[in-house]
Amino acid sequence: MADGRTSAHGPPGDEAPSAPFGRPLLSLALAGMMEEVRALAGAVYLLEPGGSVLEMAVMAGLPRAFAAPWERVGLGAPVPVAEAARERRFVWVGGEEDMARRFPRVAVVLPYPFALAAVPLATDSAVYGSVFVTWPGSHPSELSDREREQLRAACDRLALRLERAVVERRPLGPEADLLAIPPDVPTAETFGTVEAARMVSRLPYGLCSLDLHGRVSFVNTAAAELLGVPASALLGSRLWVSVPWLDDPVYEDRYRAALFSLHVTSFVALRPPGDWLSFHLYPSETGLSVRITPARAVADLDRTGRRKGGPSSLVTISQVLSLAGALTEAAGVQDVVQLVADEIMPAVGCQTLVLLRSGGGRMRVVGHRGFADPQLVERFDGLPLSDQNPGTQVLTTGVPAFFGSRGELDRAYPVVREVPGSMAAWAFLPLIASGRPVGTCVLGYAERHDFPTDERAVLTSLGGMIAQALERAMLYDAKHRVAHGLQAALLPSSLPSLPGIEAAARYLPATQGMDIGGDFYDLVPSHGRASAVIGDVQGHNVPAAGLMGQIRTAVRAYTTVGQAPEEVMSSTNRLLIDLGTELFASCLYLRLDPGTGRAVLARAGHPQPLLRLPDGRVEVLDLAGGPLLGIDASATYPTTEVELPPGCVLALYTDGLIESPGVDLDETLAALGRRLAETGDRPLDELADGLVEFGAGVTDRVDDIALLLLKTRGDER
């Protein structure tokens, strides 16, 4: 139980006498409210101590297996019972399309025509749980005022009894579920009189009766013969268990659809080796009557009883879970397009796909598949949202549109003369994520295609899953465009051409994070000499990149005014401290005189550079240095003078090139030195590519890599 806000409803009325706690309080209350509003099924959920999880305490009308995914739901889950308890309000879902738009996770698992009401169990001071009840698809799409008030009053009475139970410290737990008939297997006499049973046994077609669990409670002789299983083996067992060739989720789904919607359903099935049987299921609140006959014109039927070329079988739960898992891994928009093409198109049997998004008041094509001529799609890019066509209307209204033929499309949109491709039927699905329109998914079918209500619900639900993935992907792409643009702006677009020096540089972002970081490099001409800098600001995110830009600018400024290397480093250190940032930076700065071939280097906690001599030997330069920039305002940075003979290569790099978790740093540095020794005679750009690949091969690289190579030519001496 959990404390809650003041109830948004009026006072619950006089408290009804509480049922003795020894009796099934929840079951009696649920059965009473279902009888009052003539509901088909329902369940009571109780809020666990701590107030974060709703647990089903009792279900009535249908087997609990129908609601198995929601035995326990988090209070924040996007399902009606959780929303009712979380927001302390009455939740009404008027049908399967309404369910698909608002609660796509429920609609994918239960793609059947039914209506649902979820009501909180709450008093003025606390929330104790919630209740849902359902009606078959024949129920009006709006709940009557009488039904609404009856449910409110019944739930308010139950909430008061739950409150009393808490006060009296009488915990309430799960109770036995209520079904319309007892689970015991009846005998043939329960079907009616002996004469009635004889009459049914003489009928030329098969008849059998299934209870709410799908178990056979009666079967006549013709049904047993058609199924090829003795009546004794059928009675008491589930039909799809005792008849192996009926053990298919498609057939079980038809049974569930009939019970949940109370609509007659049918399918055809192949009895090996080559006999097709037709099954018609007639549901009621107590079970199903099944008529079995040899199927006619089976060459034109698929196993669900639909004509070939008609709608494909519903997407199975396993396919949905597979698609959902795949979509969570999609990074960019094109990843989403590819996954939808690979996963959804085969599942629903369509031949073309177009994904559209809205931007700047217009529709934009983000991807498409199945079109021989891509220009057929691209010419629709940029259509105003005000344009009267199904793609824009679906997006602005949030209501899906299904057209089984070109004639249906023409009647709905007589001004639309062109649609992408030469398809014969279309499904236009709104992509709505968290209540916001993201775009439209257009599925095209090469032949006329009927869209029954269950398929419409599944397609609409899939649209919701695509919308979530597409919204994430668009944010991901936008973030990386910004990151790449910022990184490109902060790093030099090219290195200057300086006499006596050849230079090459590379930057590689980490594989984790935003593809942006604090590694930087620069090469600056100054008074006939060359100054080079490489550094690494802590982190690989936007703050690190912003600070990196400030440091690089400062180094350029201090170099331009003629400060010595140790002064450049000290001035940059004080600037970093004055900025008040909590980030630190490593840095290596050098000034090279091409005329003498001598370089002066200052180091602030940065990895030691490598020097490849003309004879191929590689040395790790042991440079004096000071602490990281940004730690101590009084720190000094001593310098080291190094001789750079003509033809040598100086490699400056950040630690991302040599550091990775679980790898010995000395061994990695030695391996990098060997690669530099072996490949140092190659052209400098080729050498840079080879060295940066040394660090790029690390899986899940957590740091950026910057590399700056300087080669002395000796032409200025």
Describe the structure.
With 717 residues, this protein is of the alpha+beta class. 33% of the residues lie in helices and 25% in strands. The strands form 5 sheets. Strands 1, 2, 3, 4, 5, 6 and 7 form a 7-stranded antiparallel β-sheet that branches. Strands 9-8-12-11-10 form a 5-stranded antiparallel β-sheet. Strands 14-13-17-16-15 form a 5-stranded antiparallel β-sheet, sandwiched between helices. Strand 13 and strand 14 (362-369) form a beta hairpin. The longest helix has 38 residues, at 453-490. It is elongated, with a radius of gyration of 36 Å. The N and C termini lie far apart (86 Å).
Number of contiguous helices: 20
General shape: elongated
How much β-strand is present in the residues?
25-35%
Q: Give the helix level as a range of percent.
A: 25-40%
* Main sheet record: 7 strands, antiparallel
Q: Please tally the β strands and state the result.
A: 27
Mean pLDDT: 81
**How far apart are the termini?**
86 Å
Spell out the key features of this protein.
single chain; 717 residues; alpha+beta; 7-stranded antiparallel beta sheet; 5-stranded antiparallel beta sheet; 20 helices
